[in-house]
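Example record

One chain of 409 residues, shown exactly as stored in the release files.
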Amino acid sequence: MKRPNEADAVIGGGGMVGLTLALALAKGGLKVIVADPVSPANSTAAAFDGRVSAISYSSVRMLNTLGVWPAMRDRAQPIHDILVTDAKLGRVPSPFSLHFDHREIGVPMGFIVENRDIRAALVAAAERTPALILEVPASIAELEPDGAGIEVQLDNGARFRAPLFLAAEGRDSPSRERMGIGLISWSYPQRGIVATVAHEQPHNGTAFEHFLPSGPFAILPMTGNRSSLVWTEREELADAMLQLPEAAFEAEVARRFGAHLGAVRADGPRWSYPPRFHLARAYVRPRFALVGDAAHGIHPIAGQGLNLGFKDVAALAEIVLDAARLGLDFGTLDVLRRYERWRRFDSFALAAATDALNRLFSNDIGPLRFARDMGLGIVDGIGPLRRFFMRHAGGDIGKLPRLLRGEAA
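Predicted structure tokens for this chain:
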């Protein structure tokens, strides 16, 4: 049998988290192989993914350090303000609201970028990085770890051997299952409807989060007079909303959107995604680690899912590269557990917080409504607390890996 090709790391999954991790490791001097079943031509097509992502300002530092941000900067919309309100459908919002103004911290709180633009920038950066090899389209067929490394068989016939395999395959990661890592998970009786709308008035970089009894209704500013809707609807109503004729769909959007941006109209197709909570029971095995959605999945209520994955990337790259520079075997369990200790609690805390927020706000129970509205008003009225939440949303709290500080890993 032909001997496998040698690499320093093999990554299963060439999405936004997988490619960012590959770039971080390759720019740190490692030879990296990335395998993904979807070709870049398909993953960057308009029909592949209708979502946008909120990229925190600490994540922007990392993308800039890796040479990716310049390619997407012109297609990124800065978030200057965030306004959070609570209301029944068709009713006036509560007088208690929460307003985050970027001028309090001196930088935009983040940027909204279409997922396909993020992928396109990452693919372009990967293709010009000599130490990074894309095996696409190709899936992981077999994983065979042993004491000295791990052998990876792809379904296109290619074989690789490396000290480390990293699973960035998303929430249904087959490699996680192969390694026997279980999940704590549950679904929500909700569906996320995603659509882009055009509106008459400029949004001025303001993101809106309306808490409705069926779930959060987010209006995320995009470039131009456009916004992305992330509309959480009850499961039993979501299909009916998705199948409405254009005029009726726009009327339902307008009921939730309000009149602050003038008339709105749908600008493209609609997509639907089921929100789900999951946490891997372990992040690492010998020669193996989980990153991004393969390790954790959170409710989209705070728009932090991708940033959580980027934090994994920054921490794991720093630990692996530091070990490599010292001449250590970076695929051993002792090394990889440093990554698990660094990231697992933070992931759990954010997952639990978003789950609690969704349960607290996705109802119409009078006492709960009063308590949460008072909570919004209290946070809005206390400047230091408000600024803490703003810095937390920007990913600038706690022990930050070097990449998130804008330094090379």
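Notes: Residues 72 and 121 are 6 Å apart (CA to CA).
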